[in-house]
Amino acid sequence: MLFDYIDGGSYAERTLAANVADFERMQLRQRVLRDVSSLETSTTLFGQRLSMPVALAPVGLAGMYARRGEAQAARAARSAGVPFCLSTVGVCSIEEVAKAAAPPWFQLYMIRDRGFMAEVLARAAEAGCPVLLFTVDLPVGGARYRDARNGMIATTAVQRLAQAADGLAHPAWLWDVQANGGPHTLGTVAGSAKDLKRLVEFFGWIGRNFDPSITWRDLDWIRERWSGPVVVKGVLDQADARACAEAGVDGIVVSNHGGRQLDGAPSSISALPAISDAVGDRLSVIVDGGVRSGLDVLKALASGARACLVGRAWAWSLGARGEAGVVHMLQILRQELLVAMALTACTDVALAGGDLLV
């Protein structure tokens, strides 16, 4: 059930597949006889120095993949010198992650209770969260058929028995997470999620509490309550990107929610160049969806992004080996980026442009 939740997408998963396939179709331009003895991967984003143009994307329920998973991943990100972004629907709270590692970037889903939302924003500010990612592409949940088949949405007695059997078949996970990794709540919004008793009720809670009536006015509401950088996550259209720039946000994330919302939408990397051209230097453009390697990071930079959010890669690594797995994944990503830079004669990520692509 948990594997399908992170691995899958909506409907026939065509957009999920396109996110990866469109990266794979891109060709880097190999260059030779250039001095690549010194390579610079670090960059500055929203006033924060990053060791490479990568951040760990918000991933819901990560605390179910390993014991207090968000805290472990945040420590790995800190050791690698990249940001960690905490999901509104993470198991660990803002305060727990900030204490365990460093104040995370905070990803906000807007729920109907605006009073509680104001409290969450105040908590994020008090914890020192440097950046707010406002996710706008989930006014309603996409139909994720894997989650229906495995029982994460449906809750029949047969499916509950199957889930129990699945847990018993994974004794290491059962001991690490189920027995010793509690509490299994949505730490940041636990105060508003009292009707969420079990994990299988997660999507029902989203349907009852996420607000489909959000508009550009809610961005003004957030601005009144948040003084730091605001990044709008879930932009896939040039007109929406221009509207974000006109609204004065600090950045956007070109994203289709990892192929988990509107199936049949364009891949993030295919939408990126036109969106980057549309907004120019008015805001910082980030991309997520399909980033699986350091080569993908360089392709994204060459297509107009300032940085990439990496989601599934760290969730899989966390489930496999906890914090050490995420550390290792980031080391691999960095080494792949360095090799790609050297073989394309790109000596500084700040210089990555369209000339790196065939």
Topology, element by element:
Elements: H1 2-7, H2 14-25, E1 43-45, E2 48-50, E3 54-56, H3 69-80, E4 85-86, H4 94-100, E5 105-108, H5 114-127, E6 132-135, H6 145-149, H7 157-168, H8 171-179, H9 202-209, H10 216-225, E7 230-235, H11 238-247, E8 251-254, H12 268-279, E9 284-288, H13 294-302, E10 307-310, H14 312-343
Parallel strand pairs: 3-10, 4-5, 5-6, 6-7, 7-8, 8-9, 9-10
Antiparallel strand pairs: 1-2
Structural overview:
This protein has 358 residues and is α/β, with parallel strands linked by helices. It has helices spanning 2-7, 14-25, 69-80, 94-100, 114-127, 145-149, 157-168, 171-179, 202-209, 216-225, 238-247, 268-279, 294-302, 312-343; strands at residues 43-45, 48-50, 54-56, 85-86, 105-108, 132-135, 230-235, 251-254, 284-288, 307-310. The protein is globular, with a radius of gyration of 20 Å. The model has no long low-confidence stretch (mean pLDDT 94).
Whole-number tally of structural domains: 1
- Order of helix and strand elements from N to C terminus: HHEEEHEHEHEHHHHHEHEHEHEH
The spatial strand order of the largest sheet comes to 3-10-9-8-7-6-5-4
> In CATH, what is the homologous superfamily?
Aldolase class I
Shape: globular
The assigned CATH architecture is Alpha-Beta Barrel
Classification by helices and strands? alpha/beta
Name the descriptors.
10 strands, TIM Barrel, 8-stranded parallel sheet, 358 residues, alpha/beta, globular
